[in-house]
Amino acid sequence: MAHAMGRTCGKHGTGTAATALMLVLAVGMTACSSAGGDQVSAETGEDAPLSPASVADGGFPERDLIVTAICTPANAADPGMVTVDGWDPESWKRLAHAKFPLPPNAVGAGGPDDTHASHALSDLCEEDTITPPDAGNVTRLRSLFDQDFTKMAVVTEDPQSGASHVGYVDRSGTFTDLTGDKGFGNTPQEDTATFWPDGSAVWFVSMEEGRPNPYRVASRSVTGDHKAVVHGEGEDWEYLTVVRNPSRVVRTGDDAHVSPNGERLLAGNRVMAVPADAELVDVLEEPGAEQGICPDATAVGWIDDDTVLCGTNDYNFRTLDLSAGAKPSAPILPENDHVNRGMVISPDGQRFAFLSQEGTSRDFYLSSTKPKSTPTKVEKTGSLSALSGTAVVLEWR
């Protein structure tokens, strides 16, 4: 097969509740201890083991948290690892830590024979020294995980038969194959695995050659017999991205963000009403979608119910009110020659995180969403020093 295929907890409002959609991992109380999570000791300034009381309900704290992810790519001796950390957005102390060992044949893990460069995991594992990741990568990566961040959706491929299966890996590294062995018949071609927010099912795109509409969007329950349920079909495919509050799976060419009130969807630089009932939203086929919301760049996300943050072609940022005739704001950042790419917006819409590349150096910055702001660099000290330039900010909640 030619594999072209390929935020959240809390509430919106004051403080730092969860953003509209994102990508995050979490770890249970037991896993926090065993996975090597840490805090910074007030006495020594060194990393100290996390206590179970430092996380809510056995997972990452539900608010006042910035989450990052980084991949250790696969190689001939190691199938790879995804590591996720939760940080206090003010002190940048590490509050949570989790590791997801990948199956040996995981698609997109960056191995030497990996041909699935379009799979979402490749945005994290395929190191790109030229183009930094941005909000589009963030939303696709967030969609790999369930609501509580206990599982990560994975696609595997049999190098001999070419069959690709969907399933999930937990924090212990156990892979559950949801496609399974169906016996003699058509070779499974299932890709773009995505978790429904409550973790009940993995959604994916399958391909069956010879049909008028060869691509199907389907899901498999994580319980029972895992039988595929078809939700839609078409002549082509695009990424599947999960949005929350209300929960939907969106077929779009890039990212997708739902407004804080849950009424409008910003996807692929379009704004449209969130369908009342449909679990699957097909942005590419939606006739009423408005195009070109950020006319000369890409959308980062919602600041409030009527305002979006846009990244511009000169690698700056502007806000845009969506009312008729509104003009983009003045530039947010000072004039600079960095390559700046927005990642996530704070729950109150007052700040955002972006990755800035200067030559081969990459650093995270936080900035106000107001024009003419001065960004603050996130210094890589203590536990933060372990982050490489390929790390991605998955969520701010």
Describe the 3D structure.
The structure is a single chain. With 397 residues, the chain is mostly beta strands. 5% of the residues lie in helices and 36% in strands. It contains three helices and 26 strands. It is globular, with a radius of gyration of 20 Å.
What is the element layout, followed by pairings?
Elements: H1 29-34, E1 38-40, E2 47-49, E3 66-72, E4 81-87, E5 94-101, H2 122-125, H3 135-142, E6 151-157, E7 164-170, E8 175-177, E9 190-195, E10 201-207, E11 215-221, E12 228-234, E13 239-243, E14 248-252, E15 256-258, E16 264-267, E17 270-273, E18 280-282, E19 298-304, E20 307-311, E21 317-321, E22 339-345, E23 351-358, E24 361-368, E25 376-377, E26 392-396
Pfam families: PD40
Organism: Nonomuraea thailandensis
Protein name: WD40-like Beta Propeller Repeat
Identify the notable features of this structure and list them briefly.
four-stranded antiparallel beta sheet, globular, WD40-like Beta Propeller Repeat, 26 strands, WD40, 397 residues, mainly beta
Short description:
With 397 residues, the chain is mainly β. It contains three helices and 26 strands. It has a four-stranded antiparallel beta sheet. Strands 9-10-11-12 form a four-stranded antiparallel beta sheet, with no helix packed on it. It has a four-stranded antiparallel beta sheet with strand order 22-23-24-25.
